[in-house]
Amino acid sequence: MSAYAKPVEILIDELGRLPGIGPKSAQRIAFHLLKVDRVDAQRLADAITVMKDTVSFCDRCFNIAEGANCEICIDPKRDDSVICVVEEPKDIAAIEKTGAFRGRYHVLQGAINMLEGIGPEQLKIKELALRIAAEDISEVILCTNPNIEGETTAAFIATKILAPFQINVTRLASGLPVGGDLEYADELTLGRALEGRQAVR
Amino acid sequence: MALYRDDGVVLRTYRLGEADRIVVFYTRSHGKVRAVAKGVRRTKSKFGARLEPASIVHLQLYEGRNLDIVTQAESVGPLPQLRTDLDRFGRASVLLEVIDQIGTEGEPDPMLFKLLTGALTELDRAGNPMVVPAFVARVLVLEGVQPLLEACVHCGTEVDLVAIDLSEGGVLCREHRRGEPISNGARAVFEHLFEGRVRQVLEATSEPVASEVEQMASRMIEQHIERRLKSSTVLHQHLAT
């Protein structure tokens, strides 16, 4: 026997499936929705259904897209010769915020993580190779996360996939965060910061 | 004992909340330990690259009610090659997954710890594919469940041993064959491994015996832990391409 009316129970159950939302939070959100105006609740419901109906993955770069291609792939002003390879669509947002990159992207939709059973075949790596063969590309920037999964993925793409193509393959630099403290830097990061040191101008 | 120190290997990590991770360690003196590393996903984290899978670290932990908290971590032996070679990291993942399955919280096994750090260091140094079978053989011996290889488990004959049935616990002769085929080369390698002649196997095993041994080692340990190893499935899929 449940304490609430059936529809409320169903809503709590559905909300509880969302990431980071436990049963208590689900209950709190459900009761909030019960109290708000119908229009507000409807707007939320519409936002969800419209998103599910119209947004999918871009055919070319696998970013999220409204329609067959994403906005970055459609934009004629971007540089066609450089591809930035990222793990997730949200990484594109992070790079776009810097304003320092004007090329195109390729989303792998994850990183190689054998402990989770994710190998190269589960990612959009084959599609990347096809793109490079078909498009006129001079540089690929590997922007996977600087953690062990991202690094092995980048190393795999660089050595096994991109080696046959006559293109520049680069990797994001790693080093010390601005505003950090040298004594707390780990050996690996500090070692790489030394390797990638730059002349003071 | 609120704070304690130990050496540990990072077996795996799970994301927790905004920027934290739950890190599962296999430690020398406390067995498997699950601890929270706060803020480790931020770019300015003081832990940096130290708490990633396969890292060997010297730890200071704060004992919590349910999960402990990592307060300090220092690299003991950095393993740089593992990070840039998918084959090596794939094999390291198999070692980590095996230890994650057989290790228990609060039950230290210094032998197993030494075996794991030794195997990871060797993989990082040379990337020898025989490290995984050598490790698996040692684990099976420590657990006391290595399969019989010298004589048919059915009739006891020592000649014409052509198959191995892991659920029967050993090899079988041509007449009683069941399970899967095993070559004489692979059987010899496993005999060396179970008797501790690891160096010889690392130096002298070549294809095609090496891949047969590597795949069979995975199945032996899967039989023991009674489940599939995710990392081994993906690794062999990857090595096959």
Would you give an account of this structure?
- The complex is a heterodimer of chains A (201) and B (241).
- Chain A is of the alpha/beta class and 201 residues long.
- Chain A folds into two domains: 6-54, RecR Domain 1 (Helicase, Ruva Protein, domain 3); 75-199, Dna Topoisomerase Vi A Subunit, Chain: A, domain 2.
- Chain A contains eight helices and six strands; from the N terminus they run H-H-H-E-E-H-E-H-E-H-E-H-E-H.
- Chain A has helices at residues 6-16, 23-35, 38-54, 71-74, 89-98, 125-134, 148-161, 187-195, and strands spanning 55-57, 64-66, 82-86, 104-107, 139-142, 168-171.
- In chain A, strands 4-3-5-6 form a four-stranded parallel sheet.
- The radius of gyration of chain A is 22 Å and the shape is globular.
- Chain B has two domains: 3-75, OB fold (Dihydrolipoamide Acetyltransferase, E2P), CATH 2.40.50.140; 128-240, no CATH class.
- The longest helix of chain B is centred in the middle third of the chain and has 17 residues, at 86-102.
- Chain B is of the alpha+beta class.
- Chain B starts with a strand and ends with a helix.
- In chain B, the strands form two sheets. Chain B has a five-stranded mixed beta barrel. Chain B has a three-stranded antiparallel sheet with strand order 7-6-8, with no helix packed on it.
- At the A-B interface, helix 7 and helix 8 of A face helix 1, helix 2 and helix 8 of B.
Question: What are the main properties of this structure?
Answer:
heterodimer, A: 201 residues, alpha/beta, Helicase, Ruva Protein, domain 3, Dna Topoisomerase Vi A Subunit, Chain: A, domain 2, 2 domains, 4-stranded parallel beta sheet, two-stranded antiparallel sheet, 44% helix, B: 241 residues, alpha+beta, OB fold (Dihydrolipoamide Acetyltransferase, E2P), 5-stranded mixed β-barrel, 3-stranded antiparallel beta sheet, 8 helices, 23% strand
